[in-house]
Structures are given as C-alpha cells and as structure tokens.
C-alpha cells in the first residue's frame, strides 16, 4: 500500500514539472535569440549610412591634406629662420642648412602630400618662391622699384671704357682712283670712374623718392696719325676732368599691382639738375705747341673733360614686372626731355667768346630682361637696354638754330647682373654692360652695395 502511494506521488510530480520546463525553455529562447548574430543574420544595408561614411571619408582626406600643407609651411619657415639666425651670427657657409626634424605624424603627412595632392605641390612652390623673394627683390631694385623697404642707402662705383677710331680724309680723289691730300687716323680712348651715392625712401606702399649724387673722374686720350704732315707720325694728347656730376631726383608711383593677368606697373618721374661741369665753352688748345700751329705735330684737344651735360632734364618712364616662377620678366621704356639753356660762351676757340643757346635732342630709352633666383641669397639677371638720342642744336646770338651733324647717337647695351646678399641688410650688386653699338661704351663694370634699414 505504501509502495503504491509513493509511485503515485512521483508520477504526479513529474507530470506537473513538464509544463513548467517547457515554459522556461521557450522564455530562454525568446530572450537570447535577438542577441545571437549567428542565428539572426546580417542586417540589411542602409543608403543613408553609406552616404554618411563617404562624407566622413572625404572630410578626413581634406583634413589630412590641410595638415600636410601646414607641415610643409612650418618646415619652410623653420629653414628661413635658421638661415637668418646663421647669417646674423656670421656663421653662414656654403653648406645647406638642414630642416628641423619632424615628428612621425608630420613625416607621414608630408609623404602622403607628396604622393598625390596637387594642392600641396602648389603650396610647396609658393614656399619656394617666398624663400627666393629676397634675391629677386635685390635684382628688381636695380631695374624696377620696391615699395616694401622704408629706407635704402646705396653706394656704387663704376668704370667705363670707350675706344673709337676714325679715319679722316682731307683732300680729293683724282682719276677716280688716286687720293690727293692728307690721311689721318684719329683714335679716342676714354676712362671714366663714377662714384654714386643714392638714397631711396618709401613714403607709402605706392610711392618712393630717390636721390642720386654722382662724382666723376675722367681721363681721355687722343691719338692722331699723320699729324704735322708726316703720314707715319702718331701724336698723343690726354686731358682729365673730375668733379660732381648731374644730380637726379626722381619718384616712383605704383600704378597697378601684379595679378594673374596683369604685371606690376610703376610710373617714374625724374628731374636732372645741371650741377656738373658743362661741355660747352671748353677751349681746345694744342698742348706744348703754339695755338693753331700744327707744324710741330701737336693737335688741339679740350683743356678739361666735362662731368655733366649742362641742361635741365626731365624723365618720364614706365616699367613693368611679371612673375613667372622661378623667374621674373621686366621691361621699361621712357623719354628724356632737355630744356634749352643760354651760356656766356659755347665756342671752342680760346681767342674768342661766342655766347649762345644749347638744346639737346630728346632721348628715348627702352629695355627688357629676365632675372633668375638661384637661392635666397643669389640671383642672376640678363637684360638689353637701348637709348636713342636726337641731334643737338646750337644758336649763337642773332642767328637761328643749327643742328650739329653727328650729335645723334644710338647706344645699345647687353647687361649681365649678379646680386648676392651679404647679410640681412646688405647686398652686393655686380653688373657688366657690353656695348653693342659704336655710341655705347665698350664695356661698363659696376659694383653697388645697398644697405636696407
């Protein structure tokens, strides 16, 4: 009886537990099924999410590019600061100045920029151009005008050599083949040293004032073959002259600043004061011989050399500069007008005085060239310049104006210039001019040292 009751109780317990176990299993399955990725599977892609991802990727790339640009600019600025500090301490040498070390992130950003960003390459070119601006400005100061320098004091010295030969025939041609008369070979050699003190003051970002005061020393030698009637005899006479030259005061006004389609354009207006020794009224004599007597082989030469032209002049010109990385191209043109002036004596005869007026012909000049920057301190310029002078005229008392035959001239010159920055404030400018026409000096060598305040 007891055994039956025990079996019945166990059976009832098992029957009651089965529904409860099934209910617990279903609850457990419903709880864990949503969190199981294997059982639920991947969710369907959303177009809005894809668009957000692409936008964020583009923003990230833009930030990386900007970061690389800033790293490049910092590196260039650091190199310039190191170069300036080295110059100030007097330890600048020919070796290149290393760039400041960059962090790993900066190096990675720069490498990424070099691999494929055109904007970074443009910024690198701008940084390189900024590093070359000092040397280009030093070259530009000689051909154009600068408005970002408050005061510049310039000392310069130049040497010009002039050598011209002329064959003089005094007679007539007989039988169309035989020349009867005197044949004389004339040769003129001139040495001219000029020291020039100049000052340039920046009044405003568009206006500068310039003052140039030259001091000249000249020696001219005259050679003549056939002097004194002897065909084989060559006579030589020399004269000198020194003193202050004609002072020039000028102003530069910036008409237009440089843009992508327009060059930097500057207008120049100048006045030349006749402070030097004028060439009019200088007497010609035969040194060591009787005046006017050429029997002893002597011939007439001026007693001294002039240092100025003796007339007031005005200069109106325009110059333009266009940057074409890594060079600049410049050009200029203008006109010089001379005002007539009276003198108590304009003749060369020492025995008489001939008062009169002198008027020089207008002169027109033009030129063009290009300048290259090797680095921040050195630049090279190549240019051509030409100056065409009209004929001069003389007017004696009671007579009309008479043009002087042979007084017109055309002086063309090829110029080669090198600038080198000695320090932060001082530059050495070297220029060599080679005459291309008979009226230009054979060559002219110039050294200038501008000091920037």
UniProtKB/TrEMBL annotation:
Residues 26-52, 112-135 are annotated as: Disordered. SUPFAM superfamilies: Autotransporter. It holds the Pfam family Phenol_MetA_deg. Residues 1-24 form the signal peptide. InterPro entries: Autotransporte_beta_dom_sf, FApF. Keywords: Signal. This is Transporter. It comes from Dyella tabacisoli.
